[in-house]
Amino acid sequence: MASWARIRLLWRWAVVLCGVAALLTIQLNALFAEYKKVSSLMALQSPLLSIQELDQVEYLTLLPPLGLKHPQTINLNHEFLNQSSPARSLFFPSSWYGTLDPTNTNTNATTRFFLPEKIWLDTAGNPIQAHGGGILFDHKSATYFWYGEYKNGNTNLAESTGTARVDVIGVACYSSKDLWAWKFEGIVLASHPSATHDLHKSNVLERPKVIYNEKTNKFVMWMHVDDATYSKAAVGVAISDHPTGPFTYVRGTRPNGFDSRDMTVFKDEDDGAAYLIYASARNKEMHISRLSDDYMEVENVTVRALIGMHREAPAVFKHGGVYYMVTSGCSGWLPNEALVHEAESMLGTWETIGNPCVGANKEYRAATFFSQGSFVLPMPGGGGGDRGLFIFMADRWNPANLRDSRYMWLPLTVKAKFERYGQFPLWSKVAIFWHERWRAPIKDNGETYYVSKPFMAGDDL
């Protein structure tokens, strides 16, 4: 009997040991898989930037913060606008979670990552104030200039509409060689003291964009100007001899008599033609008009596009002879789904090709990663052939404190229609990829370092 009891005991121990061995095998396999994943990511984070690093599908898993009554059924859209929500830190993380800080000298071209959602500081250590803006590349100085709404003031509610606003301060300008470290150049177009002026502090100045005219050697700024009730619905134009201003305000007008709200300008580098694109008919449609040769007037031809679609926040770019436009829906401060539209001519027929957002999670993709587009910038060294690489510039608006609105810069790619990304059967050939951090292929001096040739030890970054 004792021997049988001993045998049963040994058998039980054998079963336990087998189970432990199986569990260890599973854990080791998981660790090996994680090691391979980390190794591949480390390869992508090599000194030489691979295209794969930009269009890699990255998922986002959010842990519900403490204090939510029903974390299993959290609605991110509701929490986004709820100023007292414990989930607020998911969208507007404090500086404790990190900042994009160019004053940190322990960086080089391989470690300078863009950090969507995080606070972005300028070279003086102050939060950048260039909301709803756009970028001009000045070829003479090989410098990027970032223009945007300077909102470093108190957020209040407009008496007539109740919408959040900051009194007009002006248009800010920042300069950079590498798109990462930005120097504040000052307010290049300031508010005006006259209560009857378009730029009086009680009015609205939004979405400034600057283009350079080679014929006149002038820098021309277009912007949305309005009153506090958004009933003026006009565009303003200003001009300067220098990219850092000062800009002189020339006039405000309704282009060809149409109401104009969210707008942008696009300069076709192939032929020098420039266009004004703006939401009109109370945002029911988009209008496009060519600018005069000096970029100061709107020509008397207006193309109506996206009729009945209620789109705003247009951002236009060109690749491979095709024009693309990214727009958002009209839902106030609540983020919504971006759409991409394409045309063979700026004044041609525009076709909608779908939501470009890839990665993160379903709610983020349906809300343009909780942001709204403002501009699309060609990526330095942005590839060739069928591939196009760009930077999608967007704002994550914070209506409770507009000066704390964040910048959502993400890589945008254009590929052939038959290509696919990961598990996503995307039929759109334009994709904006979510990344918690990513980098652009640009050195301190503005030179690019793509994989056009193998990176060798000793190469200067």
Automatic annotation (TrEMBL):
<dbReference type="InterPro" id="IPR023296">
    <property type="entry name" value="Glyco_hydro_beta-prop_sf"/>
</dbReference>
<comment type="similarity">
    <text>Belongs to the glycosyl hydrolase 43 family.</text>
</comment>
<dbReference type="Pfam" id="PF04616">
    <property type="entry name" value="Glyco_hydro_43"/>
</dbReference>
<keyword id="KW-0326">Glycosidase</keyword>
<dbReference type="GO" id="GO:0005975">
    <property type="term" value="P:carbohydrate metabolic process"/>
</dbReference>
<protein>
    <submittedName>
        <fullName>Uncharacterized protein</fullName>
    </submittedName>
</protein>
<keyword id="KW-0378">Hydrolase</keyword>
<dbReference type="InterPro" id="IPR006710">
    <property type="entry name" value="Glyco_hydro_43"/>
</dbReference>
<dbReference type="GO" id="GO:0004553">
    <property type="term" value="F:hydrolase activity, hydrolyzing O-glycosyl compounds"/>
</dbReference>
